[in-house]
Amino acid sequence: xxxxxxxVLSVQNLxxxxxxxxxxxxxxxxxxxxxxxxxxxxxxxxxxxxxxGCGKSTLGRLALRLEEPxxxxxxxxxxxxxxxxxxxxxxxRPKLQMVFQDPLGSLNPRMRVWQSVAEPIRLHxxxxxxxxxxxxxxxxxxxxxxxxxxxxxxxLSGGQxxxxxxxxxxxxxxxLVILDEPTSALDVSVQAKLINLLRELRAELALTQVFISxxxxxxxxxxxxxxxxxxxxxxxxxPTAELYARPRHPxxxxxxxxxxxxxxxxxxxxxxxxxxxxxxxxxxxxxxxAPRCPFAMDRCRQEKQQLRAVGPDHLVACWRAxxxxxxxxxxxxxxxxxxx
Amino acid sequence: xTLLDVRDLRTSFFVRSGELRVxxxxxxxxxxxxxxxxxxxxxxxxxxxxxxIIRLLKPPGRVVSGEVRWDGQDLLPVTEDDMEQQIRGxxxxxxxxxxxxxxxxxxxxxRQLTQVLEIRQSMGREEARREAVRLLRSVHIAxxxxxxxxxxxxLSGGTxxxxxIALALSCHPRLLIADEPTTGLDVxxQYQIVQLLRELRERTGMAxxxxxxxxxxxxxxxDRVAVLYAGRIAEVGSMQNLFRWPRHPxxxxxxxxRPRLGxxxxxxxxxxxxxxxxxxxxxCRFHPRCPNATDICAEQQPALASMPPGQIVACHNPVTxxxxxxxxx
Lengths: 340, 329
Fold this sequence. Notes:
The structure holds two protein chains of two kinds. By secondary structure, chain A is an alpha/beta fold.
């Protein structure tokens, strides 16, 4: 594991439950995030991948304390974010930035876009020299032209709006940036440009990032390590190349097998999980994948497995995978069997 | 006979800033039992093509000219009553991206199915109920009797899409138009829907027009692909040919701009932005963004023409076959 000093963000046993009313006097708990622990190291990009509703966006918001956790702790470097008052938190805000999926929703529609980017610089009193000059430099950095400065958000294309969103997040010189599906709403050709930009910025600015996405191709392109979430829990975490080449958890195996290959014509057999993701209101008691997992045994339905090391920096929460009982050949066989 | 034969279809949106020529001469064919993917990015006109075909366009959109031959008969002059009673939802059915929104939120799944069966197939109540159960079973919905009593909001996205497909199948359509049927579904559910569509096509012999921005989805389901750019067909061909040897520079660029695992360095991109439809570029609408463009491309709109290895392409300076191999393989 990394030295503590190298860890920029760490969350310990983080839980977020929402109360859902089911009757006049009754409510149920929706377990959006259910006991997540992870650390993000200095200058790395951690990819957080999972299907819709798995809790990855909630986890991102909790990590920046845009939402209050039900329990658990979030540390930014040495600081316990969950213990901070409003004033102290505001002082830290410039260091902790977020880029959202929907840039229009995060930009003020009545402000020219350069003002939206200037706002965090002014707000945090970071302006040395002309704010406008700083904004111009940021625009150049994210690939926007001078002429875009005076536009309103709705006058820009989706890709340009997202560039403004990124410029705004970079404006206060953040230490940690969480990007929540920043390319998901964009067309293929626009997405490619944005991915190239994010890669460039990552190399130039040496940022520490969490990249949240449901798209494994994009995550694979931009992350050093990947954490896989299923129903509010992390089921596997490891270095990107290794996790993609040799997934251990059956859920990761299914996700990776769904990534289109290099050759689109190679209709690869996918590992198909039967059924759908169950509701996070009453998730399966032990392993949450057990009801859909082709490898599940009695133990999987009775006893919860914690994340366990299966290689350097590679953790998996699966009894059978941790014991080395599921081989790549087993995954391969499942694909064929389920497809037939 | 060709099942659907769309010829030089022109559809415009008449808005304050002028006439948006959203479809500027779309030509395509679907044979019985064939799966054709209509691939394009936002604003390319792929959904407008579908809505023009089944005449569900709402103002300010209007079909300006062209033909939509269904089984030899042009649908454009057909009265709305005949469209409703004979074609739409009967011979041609459609499913959408947001199945839960397409279903009636106030009616149970069972009632929505039986109502359609009673009206369109003149079934009695009990017969319709039995048929509804059979339909739900045919799209692999577990415990269909119980599902009949569910309301749309109680369904997961995948199950709702299955219900939509069951509704579409209720009239034994010869063509199913599927508009981004898996967008918004979970990755693990997407594949189940793709499998279901494949299976139904095998079993019923219906043709499918798949509308999507997702090249990988097209590759999994389709026999042929039509690539749309700014309201015009850029290239049509068998999936094998078109993905292996794209001839139109746009197809080639689109295929290259996918992020791929294990590839480092920049992803190849397409310069510039999608064509503005109020003032579209002259000649070939792709020419300002095209690496192969020459003077003629700005002057003359290229006509669709056959090119080896067998697709139809609208381009003055197509990608050479050698270059195509490098991109596709």
